[in-house]
Amino acid sequence: MDILAHPNPALKQTSSAVDPGADADLPRLVKVMARAMYDAPGIGLAAPQIGVLKRVFIFDIDDQLGVVCNPVIIERSEETEVDDEGCLSLPGISVPVERSVRVVCEGLDIKGSPVRIEGSDLVARMLQHETDHLDGVLIIDRATPEERRAAMRRYMESAGR
Ligand SMILES: [Zn+2]
User: Fold this and answer.
1) How remote is the CA of residue 113 from the centroid of ligand 1, in Å?
2) Residue 25 burial (10 A CB sphere; 0-12, 13-18, 19+)
3) Is residue 106 annotated as a catalytic residue, yes or no?
4) Distance 21 CA to ligand 1 centre (A)
5) Structure confidence by residue, pLDDT tens digits, 88-147
6) pTM of the predicted protein model
7) Could you tell me the residue range of the domain that residue 106 belongs to?
8) Are 16 and 22 in contact (CB under 8 A)?
């Protein structure tokens, strides 16, 4: 399964909530997503990046696959940090993005049990990045207009578009 690249319209859509207990396709979806993420390789992947508009993302930062369905960032630190961020759907570029340094994300696991992830730094950045995907928001949408223009120029050049 190929990871969709910007400007694929699926990446701009708002994804729908899932019911892990009732969604029989979920285990297969997670398996396909995991293969795509590890092949890339990346540390996180959201379902719309493979064209499935469901509120599911996966991640692996500490050699353990995590799955979050219907994630909501319920707390975020006022303290923020700007750092270069990449995205598997914008191969070849990174963009400075301001994110909260610490967040708490709640959702459901693949069986429908509640999950709560408290993360800082890279984990916090990943949680905000992947949750953004489920609302059709990409890193270029978080950049300043000048940074966005410069990034898109690099993107077009690197892809030979
Ligand atoms: Zn991404």
Assistant:
1) 25
2) exposed
3) no
4) 26
5) 999 999 999 999 999 999 999 999 999 999 999 999 999 999 999 999 999 999 999 999
6) 0.96
7) 9-159
8) no
